[in-house]
Amino acid sequence: MTQTLHGTVVPSKPAVAKVSNGSRVDPIFRPNSVAVIGASNRVGTVGHDLFRNILFSGYTGTLYPVNPKAASIAGVHAYTNIGEIPDEIDLVLIMVPPIVVPQVLEDCGNKGVRGAVIVTAGFKEIGPEGAALEQQAIEVARRHGIALVGPNCLGVINTDADIMLNASFARRMPKHGNIAFLSQSGALCAGILDYARGRDVGFSKFISVGNKADVTEIDLLRYLANDDGTDVILMYLETLVDGRAFIELAREITGELAHRKPILAIKSGRTTQGAAAARSHTGALAGSDAVYDAIFAQAGILRVDTVEELFDFAVGFSRQPLPKGNRFAIVTNAGGPGIMATDAAIRHGLELAKLRPETLESLKAKLPPTANFSNPVDVIGDATCDRYTTALEAVLGDPNVDGLVVLLTPQSMTDIEAIARTIGEIAPTSKKPVLASFFGHVDVSAGVRILEQHNVPNYEFPENASRSLAAMCRYTQWLLRPRTKERHFEVDREAVTQIFAKARGEGRTFLPEAEALAVLKAYGFPLLQHALAKSEDEAAEWFQKIGAPVAMKIASPDVVHKLDVGGVLLNISTPEEARAGYNKITNGVKQKLPSARLFGVEIQAMAAKGVEVILGISKDPSFGHIIMFGLGGTYVEVLKDVSFRLVPIRELGAHNMIKSIRAAKVFDSFRGQPPADTEAIAECLERLSQLIVDFPEITELDINPLIVHAEGKGARVADVRIALAPDAHGP
Amino acid sequence: MTQTLHGTVVPSKPAVAKVSNGSRVDPIFRPNSVAVIGASNRVGTVGHDLFRNILFSGYTGTLYPVNPKAASIAGVHAYTNIGEIPDEIDLVLIMVPPIVVPQVLEDCGNKGVRGAVIVTAGFKEIGPEGAALEQQAIEVARRHGIALVGPNCLGVINTDADIMLNASFARRMPKHGNIAFLSQSGALCAGILDYARGRDVGFSKFISVGNKADVTEIDLLRYLANDDGTDVILMYLETLVDGRAFIELAREITGELAHRKPILAIKSGRTTQGAAAARSHTGALAGSDAVYDAIFAQAGILRVDTVEELFDFAVGFSRQPLPKGNRFAIVTNAGGPGIMATDAAIRHGLELAKLRPETLESLKAKLPPTANFSNPVDVIGDATCDRYTTALEAVLGDPNVDGLVVLLTPQSMTDIEAIARTIGEIAPTSKKPVLASFFGHVDVSAGVRILEQHNVPNYEFPENASRSLAAMCRYTQWLLRPRTKERHFEVDREAVTQIFAKARGEGRTFLPEAEALAVLKAYGFPLLQHALAKSEDEAAEWFQKIGAPVAMKIASPDVVHKLDVGGVLLNISTPEEARAGYNKITNGVKQKLPSARLFGVEIQAMAAKGVEVILGISKDPSFGHIIMFGLGGTYVEVLKDVSFRLVPIRELGAHNMIKSIRAAKVFDSFRGQPPADTEAIAECLERLSQLIVDFPEITELDINPLIVHAEGKGARVADVRIALAPDAHGP
Q: Which domain holds residue B330?
């Protein structure tokens, strides 16, 4: 028997057996009993606020304060330490100074605690000593099998009616809802909760992950995937612990589960810390931020830039059905906002629906002649409720319309509340998403409340409604995408193993072009005819065999950018030129780089004209290999018009990489030219992916350029660079 | 003596002599007497609402309803027609059916009315009959010297205490403030007024311009320029009547007047109606929207995309001083929002200020050790007011800081109102802009009100505060820009006159390359050595004179794209090749275009390597000549990385055109290459501007490419096309 919430006495065994979803973080969200270690009566402390938040938010389990100096906290009997508590404890909240945290965790472990949230700050985020303490805490938790959230976090909230746990120092319990929120910034949570309250947004679970010492976004996503009460998942991230695992799990949640859930994420801190040295094209182009773009694209996560977008989109997803396609309609009583909503919708990828003749007829029959009947449908400034009813029924009934944005500006004769009611009543009859923007603030507020009661999201501005509908449509497209697999090509893996072994044996990490080409050949890349000439005679001989025109390039493991040292000649068209070229190149390089080892000169057929593209890989310190695609030429580095994916990539992923550069139109039929062979590019990207998976010791690889010919005519590798990790130990 | 507002009797001459600013639209804003023609007692009509709005909003002049069927409107004696009114009338509001509007205006003219606002819709916007009626109305108004606003508008509002005129059918009188708003969408106004009320934004003048039959944005901007009560001008535009006049006037308002005023504009309807035929590079690249971008850039107007940005920026400008530079600081109690604000600020062109050592010392002395002292300054989640005071004083006192964003998230111990008060008190002592974002909604609301009372703008999201500070900084940069003039080069205008006369005389509108090059030569463009060969012998001769390598191009007034008909050969390096080339080109073109007139083959020196750019002009139906600049090559058409300006351009404008393409970095020192000669490009753009001003009959001109060499080495025109208007009549 123990003291509980309001001083009454209840049996010490759980009153209700909570349903577990079998996750190790289950005790965090659904504990039968909670101890607050560091609970306090001193106003203005976290221990004061957090204990009272649990106590006064209606927690359905049993709550114990631990404080060696107080007899009671907020009227509840306090214990000197956790060992003293006569009950079993599922979850502890820890807000004692960092230095004692490892010992407190040890006590918790001995007590059989299964979950802990360390709210206290002063760990990894403050420097090496903090990091050492954090490491100690992790070890203790792991040894005892405690799932550990934090340290340095705001806490955890579960609004399920049978739990009602506000184990946080946020100001209040949020409304119950179907949105889960996971944040790497604790302080942000406080603002989010207040903002959400103003916008009438409810949450299922709300969790501040802090330093992610043990429990990470992976554990939590897995938990939320199985949480029936969660339909939409929001995340604020500053880092990810494991990009590949994150992608796999998120793909499943967003696209494969029976109860699939959209994930929306803000990733802040757009720095370039992940960019590798500038000597690698790919490395210089990949910033950590571009990697996150790639991860989110591969995972089916909608990346957003601002908190406003996050919630704009979330309310759309959480309250309305998904559109079946991207054809939108607008009903408005104001021309200007109609244009603005149209501009925004089209900018974000929607298409203005073409209304059926029957729809236009029915609108013409019932609306005044000054109205605009074709989409956007303008019922005109003096419209009252009946015109909205007419327009909504006609437009939502039109099979050419996938989703609707309803706009209203409060003119003096506008019956705002009646219009809100008719929208609320008609919207659910259509199974199409209906988003509203009642533009204004004060006069429209009663109407906005009515819309919310009917689960029709309202947006302060027309553009936001359009953008949100577009986001829902992007998710539909993700669900409807063709599911492709990773392709496995027949390759000569052994040949590559031997080339790498030879290089490593000779202490080389950078492969000369002949070796690099041999690697690509073993993996089935389309190459130009080429050969290595070791003398001017051989240069002339190979010229004869390959046929004019040829390119000549220095072959040296020590020359990284051949052009910079005069190591390249193009358009060689006679044997004499080939002979002279051999000497010119080797002498030139000898002069500029006297220490470079020269293997000879590579003689290569000149590629037929085509679009030059670049394929590359770089290795991110946190996420491993990243594959890059972009246009070739000087401007690629200036315009940074490139796309990335984590390896391995699938067939669709390869095609999406090609489509997602800004200049992708160059591959279309253009000024009389036939379209380019993007199939061939995609296959090269997939072969590259397979090569990197097989040989992770490759740290840099640039195919620059790959020359792409017309559809059906393939592509050819014109140049390649490969570098290996110095400490590589083979595949 | 007449009946007035509340049934009392006052003298019929004006009680107060209003101060006129001498504009023809003055009677619209500051009338001594107003008649409402079509005033009504029927609820739900515009005549009902508008009359009562004037009556109940405290108008200080005399108000008369005109309605032939009513004895009184809202208790005020009604007149059968305007002629009956015993008083002089300055302004009439007209809301009678369109068909009678011209007669009503005629009556108004006879009565001596000086201003009219036609609220009624059903004119130009509904088709040809409406347009004819509108034309009639304009003629009547012009004949009588009536300044006419509308038709098809919401009305006009002036909040000056000595006028207090709400001559609109908006729901209520806005708060008085220093922001003027001008809208081409009447219905948008209603939403704006309601939104502004919620955000506590006041207006000086508020005007719905409708169809702009007579009074346009030009008249109104001129009026607002002289209006002491207006500090910031906002516009919602769908079209502009005269781009050049708009630029001249707006430049003066935004940069030159003693009481200069920022102008912020939304231009909606991003269509491509202004794009000319695709055969002209420049025409295909210029959409009307790009033209608006150019106009706004030249006028110093900040173009915004959404109503949210419009007001975000407006409250910054209207309540805070301008920053002196772009170095911003952040003070926050939450890391996550601090990062988000930093990301947004940098994305919009601000720079994170480097705090002085003294500032860091003073922060270290007074903040807890877990705080972050360097910018963004994080006073940590448990901060109360004293830490904010410390941080604000230190950071605002630092001369390295030009502007500040203060962030707050409402954590349980945050004393929101005290912090708002300290921000409000410290901000004005610094003469630097301070923008706040108290993140949340409900808990922060009292704090937000306190900030507003102290004229510190609050933004719902951290990103919005950063973006607004960045907008203020962009305006500072506009004010600080070097003032340059239009340069006038010495040119041979007569030579061009003759070339054009000859072409027109022969019925040609498209100039062959030799003529086009002669035009450029007369205007001092840097050309490659070239000559016209009329036989294979001449081709060989000219080859000898110019020297290898040369390019050969067909000379024909009928060949527009020479490459497409095999009309170009490059890298000709022997006299034999030149001879053979002559025949190959002429025979090839004859075969492909048998009807083309052939003048011979142009022999031109090959340009040394360099960056290829394109310069062009196109003629916009509304705005006249537009000059274009972009990168050369195939991708320019795909990437649309180009900039535009209306002619004439000044020296700074030319440089800004070059800087404002996305790939402008290609002109910098790059991979060991020296920087490109952008001075030479700028001069070519200015010469082009002079040419077009002198010869407006030029409808198309593409210099493609202009080859730009290293700094100091100039640029060379490699190819040019010129087309004239068919009906050109000379300069």
A: 321-480
